[in-house]
Amino acid sequence: MDLSYNAEDEQFRSELRGWLEANIPREWSRPGFWSSLDREEAFALRRDWEARKAEAGWAGISWPTEYGGRGGTPAQKAIYDEETVRASVPYTVNPLGLTFLAPSVMVFGTEEQKKTIIPDLLFNRVIWCQGFSEPGAGSDLAALSTRAEDQGDHWLVNGQKVWTTNAMHGDWIFTLVRTNPDAPRHAGISMLLIDMHAEGVEARPLKQMSGESEFGEVFFTDVRVPKSSILGPVDKGWEVAMVLLSFERGSSAMGQYTGFRRELDQVAALAKGRERFGKPAAEDPQLRQKLGASLVELELLKLHSLHILTAVEQGRELGFEASMTKLQWSEAHQDLGELFLDVAELSGQETTGEDFAGLDPLQHSALWSRSETIWGGSSQVQRNVVAERVLGLPR
Amino acid sequence: MDLSYNAEDEQFRSELRGWLEANIPREWSRPGFWSSLDREEAFALRRDWEARKAEAGWAGISWPTEYGGRGGTPAQKAIYDEETVRASVPYTVNPLGLTFLAPSVMVFGTEEQKKTIIPDLLFNRVIWCQGFSEPGAGSDLAALSTRAEDQGDHWLVNGQKVWTTNAMHGDWIFTLVRTNPDAPRHAGISMLLIDMHAEGVEARPLKQMSGESEFGEVFFTDVRVPKSSILGPVDKGWEVAMVLLSFERGSSAMGQYTGFRRELDQVAALAKGRERFGKPAAEDPQLRQKLGASLVELELLKLHSLHILTAVEQGRELGFEASMTKLQWSEAHQDLGELFLDVAELSGQETTGEDFAGLDPLQHSALWSRSETIWGGSSQVQRNVVAERVLGLPR
Amino acid sequence: MYFALTDEQRDLGRTVRDYLADRFGPEQVRAVYEDAAGDGHPAELWKACAEQGWLAVTVPEQYDGLGLGLLDLAVIARAWGASTIPGPWLPTVLGGEAIRIAGSPEQQAEWLPKVAAGEVVLSIATRREGGDWTAAGAACTESGGTLSGTAAQVEYAAVADAFVTATADGRLWLVEAAAPGVTVVRTGGLDRTTRLATVTFADSPATLLGDDLDSLYGAAMVLTANDLVGIARSALTRTVAYDKEREQFGRPVGSFQAIKHALADLHVAVSMAEHGALYAAYALDSGQPDAVQAVHVAKSKASDVARDATAAMIQYLGGIGYTWEHDAHFAFKRAKREEYAYGDGAWHKEKLAQLLLA
Amino acid sequence: MYFALTDEQRDLGRTVRDYLADRFGPEQVRAVYEDAAGDGHPAELWKACAEQGWLAVTVPEQYDGLGLGLLDLAVIARAWGASTIPGPWLPTVLGGEAIRIAGSPEQQAEWLPKVAAGEVVLSIATRREGGDWTAAGAACTESGGTLSGTAAQVEYAAVADAFVTATADGRLWLVEAAAPGVTVVRTGGLDRTTRLATVTFADSPATLLGDDLDSLYGAAMVLTANDLVGIARSALTRTVAYDKEREQFGRPVGSFQAIKHALADLHVAVSMAEHGALYAAYALDSGQPDAVQAVHVAKSKASDVARDATAAMIQYLGGIGYTWEHDAHFAFKRAKREEYAYGDGAWHKEKLAQLLLA
Questions:
Q1: CATH topology classification for B7-93
Q2: Which chains form contacts with chain C, at 3 or more CB pairs under 8 Å?
């Protein structure tokens, strides 16, 4: 075991840190800055920032240089995740495109697709959505019913997608559609790439219980999609999707760790500052236990990330450890949300603002964390995966 | 709601209390008395006591008078359970016979069976075992494979039973056996009554992790059982067993409550007396939380018992509430066992006696409570019952 | 000996539920919910409360009340929780209880008929932010018959006609909203089925009621516990119903054993919490020797189980339960707020430890 | 950057496991277990420990040791836990660590070669019953170079040649078992894979080692954590294996989703505990700035997960796991004892809260 990074990686870290310090507007780390902006304003700011960052060479960290990436090591990617969160860089506006689509295009894409899609992602010129879930197909993705009919020179797409991140900002969407309704469930599915500005595509915001609309719905009504706008072979979309989703597998959770750890520090600070029964809440032994427990789970998440990173660097087969990572971070984050609410107690139930709907970032996080054990494979689905694929328990 | 008992019930309570005070040897409530006896000695003492109690009319509290019972109300049965535990009366040596067999004989028995079996149970002259579980048939009782072949004038029984309470003291055993191996799983089973002193019956103690042998195994090798020694019709043993097990359903858990509540008081006293980090363990906020939590669950068990009792008195259909009762008491008792170990900490890990195997009653209880979520329908089986039979969730 | 509601109490519960189903269903709740700036005090519902006698339950008959007990109020509170009903019913009833418990005959004669008739809205303003709201840190200090201090998270303060508040010696006081020096500043709430405000008293003239803060809190804890078990039972029932129908992988979601077992455990826990919430009301009504213990048992279990049942509802409804359009979050957020109101599970368990170790 | 054992460490682990599988399997463990009156110190196993260098791991090379680190010891401790191995390996190694950390060169030269060669058995006798074993309440008081006091739950005291004990100022002392005033009274233990005793010192001559009780406890916590994760992993593996085979209702028990999910959660928790236990050893070895935090994380998680995994084993093996004849209770009871040894989960979480809130 040796947790020191090599000289090259440390060099990478120090260059990145220097660039971030020089380029991140100071006001970004001011508490409340981001929540003071309206959603559209914030989105535009984040989008521009990412383009600038890419121009300076700080994008596609682990992508091969032939695609314009930096060709960095997994360790550098982890350093990048850590440093950007630490520097209060806002989360990417293009997570689905960057994490899932780009590497999939590298594997399955035509030359044309590689040439257009990847650079646009690198410089954040096109925001991609993912169109997988449907009202009748959540955990059971293969139950999807959005149809694409072969009309000779184009596909005619009808159906509805739901839980679409960035639906209202999306330019394009990679979508699973049923191209052969007579085939068995997992066959007859294809992965289409659809221009969200095309006729017949309608995106609607989907309001969550936080009052925000992180997700949306996308409706397809007689949308004409060029035959070439498909990723991978016709009717092989399920296989493409499985490979696509596997790109999450090797990704470390260092970013989540760094972010959640900062939240824990904020909760600890709140506990010190907030009086309860005439004493600081931080002196409440029950809250102390929960603070300690949260620290345990987050530090273990960090170690798990290092373990994943090591496995990737050593070229070992990762298997289904992504399910373990997801369980660990999503459940730990949900517990952290509860802890915040316990510390804030009744006053944490108050909201602010003219419309009485203003949420503190930790309030928002506590509510949002309730969705994290559902999307991207619910905790129940992840436990099935761990039980069957890792432990080998019978189906 | 009115939790006062009526005058007749209160009269019953005061008579019982008076009789118990006059008749229970004082030394029985001395701490450590029971654990100071060897197992056989203790058993003999308990057996004699029950006979004396029956002679004084304090047996078969809720049995009809025609069978020699007192014909008491459910409330009187609950009072009886409460008062006997409170008075440190040891638990009956004949639980299976009294709770399950006696009422079943009243329903299914021949006149001859009623005339012999019930009085012997009332006066504790015959100790009954239950022969249901087998090595291959635990939660899945219907998988049993002990066979009884029809030899014209008798059944020839071969097979093995396990988890048999009182196996080493049993005189007779009511046993599920397969009388028709070609019938479907639940058909072709009969309930035989077998003399454990008969040739070919061998009982062996089964040592538990506590070092005690509360359970045993019973082996049948070419045992000849008279054709008349059957409860209910041939091949209808499954139905007989279901009715038999249902007699637990209406039984209140007042006895468990009273016993566990006393254990909790003992744990609380231990916490006050035991120093930890230079202060009484009772000042440890984590232990206080657990003490409070245990009190919550035990008091709710008591209320649940009153609820069951009310339903029985009002003649309401109980359904599958016995599964809820079992889950509540067995899980609460297991948590109480853990709480004791937490309070006692490392010193609670020490044992005493010349053979270094002597267990404190609370140590024994903590270990024993691990079996309580397994026998009599594991917690998993009970949750299935609650989910399917009470909530109506699909199988 | 019977541990159950009387037929009359069952009828009362049915009447309340029937009314709500007919006249104040999910749509009406949602209307209040969406109107965050509104007062959260639907006039029609209030009128019904008055007409049906739901504000008069524990008001003595001589003051135009029904002269019933906390157990009857508990029946209403459960129905209220089950349907996440907004409005100042609970704080008004509690205000009335304060006057009934601690007030003089004159004060009772002045206020209780108005409470019973729905002519006044009352609220409880005893909690000082960060203070020991149960006693020493109560909201106000007294000086020559006037009170000063600040109470936080006061329910429906903006529509209240008078506040019950307390001083550190455990005495209860009544301050009219229109009195000099009373300032009400609304805040929002995650749980929009209620309305919150901070109430400041500055040398405000006050009427002394008497010195039984503990009894008031006993009633508040019991009724909140009953609201919570109403929420919990309703959340469980809705989850079971949804999971029976919702199919994934070709079978109902509710046929998956991991979900079944979680729901079974919740059913046991909710049933126990129901027992506890009812018994605590009975115990206070009839002065049982274990009444204090019963209150702590009830609020502890109800707080924990409502949190767990509503969280399970969000999880086992899948994404739909997390949307604004679905009502699941009404229950989730109401349970969360009430978990902390009048002491959370940990607080009550500590109190129980004190009793056990005494 | 790599977070993994080295090939050499993996080889070490394999060697230990192979040896145990061949020469000290379940039968040998059971023999010790059944012989409650015996000393629990199998000669052949001890000889192997000496021959294989398992007692010499952290002993510096100049004292005939291997000069390796805590992480290498952790590899052995995990194997020890996995097979619930009896004998005084751990207390002897810890005694050696006390001398290595706090002793003078002369003391090291005198004792460490004997530790490495298996010529002495040492034990840690720092815990006063009910006292604050971490410091102020340590077992002994000193007077003119002699120690007096009583240490509870001392492992393998009856076969120890010398004890490491502590005074309230945090200084560590060495007392030979044969010294005047030393009394060893054996007690039994629920966990028969170790042996316990109460050790009393009465004006017993002692040698001062130095003042690093905290470092000794750091090593003790880390090695106990590794023993615990060994237990936990082994319990989980055995449960999974049994539930794959055991059929009820015509299908393997392990195909029931409620059990699958419980085992999946345990797999995640055990894996995390493994990370934590290894990292803590590395952090102490290499003096990482978060080493103290790492130790508390490791022992907290390991304590909790070993308790949960062994309890799950009892439950999911069904009745068989509750019998004396099955080995499941060896692991269950060892996990329970070690949960409390050197601080349980709650104790370590409180320490972590102190760090977080500092």
A1: Butyryl-Coa Dehydrogenase, subunit A; domain 1 (1.10.540)
A2: A, B, D
Q: Is the pLDDT of residue B287 over 70?
A: yes
**How many residues would you count in chain D?**
358
The confidence band for B194, taking pLDDT boundaries of 50, 70 and 90, is very high
Neighbours of chain A (3+ CB pairs under 8 A): B, C, D
Whether residue C60 lies inside any domain: the answer is yes
Give residue B79's identity as a one-letter amino acid code.
I
| Nearest in space to A89 (alpha carbons), one of A46, A130, A51, A133 | A46
Give pLDDT, residue D137: 62
Catalytic residue among B212, B248, B297, B338: B248
- pLDDT tens, position by position, D51-74: 999 999 999 999 999 999 999 999
- The tokens of C300 are what? 């502890």
Residue C211 pLDDT more than 90? Answer: no
A157-161, B95-99, C172-176: the lowest-pLDDT one: B95-99
Q: Which residue of C has its CA nearest to D264?
A: C258
Query: Would you say B261 and B314 are in contact if contact means Cβ atoms under 8 Å apart?
Result: no
Does D2 map to a domain? no
Q: In the listed set D82, D117, D152, which residue is the last one of a domain according to the structure?
A: D117
φ, ψ of residue C55 to 5 degrees: the values are -95, -5
The distance of B287 to chain C (nearest Cα, Å) reads 9
Token pair, residue C344, equals: 């959370």
Q: Could you tell me if D51 and D94 lie in one domain?
A: yes
Q: Please report residues of B whose CB lies closer than 8 A to that of A286.
A: 285, 289
Average pLDDT over residues D162-175: 94
Counting Cα atoms < 13 Å in the Cβ hemisphere of B79 gives 25
User: Do C256 and D257 count as a contact with CB atoms less than 8 A apart?
Assistant: yes
Alpha-carbon dihedral angle through residues A191, A196, A197, A202, given to the nearest 10 degrees: 120
A338 is catalytic: no
Which superfamily does CATH assign the domain made up of A128-234 to?
Butyryl-CoA Dehydrogenase, subunit A, domain 2 (2.40.110.10)
**Chains touching B by CB (3 or more pairs below 8 Å):** A, C, D
Nearest CA in chain C to D255: C257
Report the chain A residue with the minimal C-alpha distance to residue D295.
Answer: A296
Residue D348, in any domain of the structure: yes
Which of chain B's residues have a Cβ under 8 Å away from the Cβ of D333? 209
Are C261 and C182 in a shared domain? Answer: no
- pLDDT of amino acid D195: 97
Residue of D261, D266, D316 to mutate for C, most C C-beta atoms under 10 A: D261
Q: D91, D23, D80, D135: which is closest to D277 by C-alpha?
A: D80
Residue showing tokens 């120690």: D147
For residues D28, D31, D37, D38, the Cα torsion angle rounded to the nearest 10 degrees is -30
Tell whether D258 lies on the interface with C, counting CB pairs under 8 A. yes
Among residues A248, A297, A331, A338, the one annotated as catalytic is A248
**Cα–Cα distance, D225 to D297 (Å, whole number):** 10
What residues contact A279, with CB distance under 8 A and at least 6 apart? none
User: What is the per-residue pLDDT across D317-355, written as a single tens digit (0 to 9) for each?
Assistant: 999 999 999 999 999 999 999 999 999 999 999 999 999
* pTM of the predicted structure, to 2 decimals: 0.96
Question: Which residue from B minimizes the CA distance to A285?
Answer: B285
d(CA B372, CA B379): 9
How many CB atoms lie under 10 A from the CB of residue D192?
27
How does pLDDT run across B320-346, given as a tens digit for each residue? 888 999 999 999 999 999 999 999 999
Residue C2 covered by a domain: no
pLDDT in tens, B156-173: 999 999 999 999 999 999
State the Cα–Cα distance between residues C248 and A380, nearest whole angstrom: 12
**Chain A residues inside the 8 Å CB shell of D282:** 1, 3
Do C226 and C344 lie in one domain? The reply is yes
- The one-letter code for the residue type at C200 is T
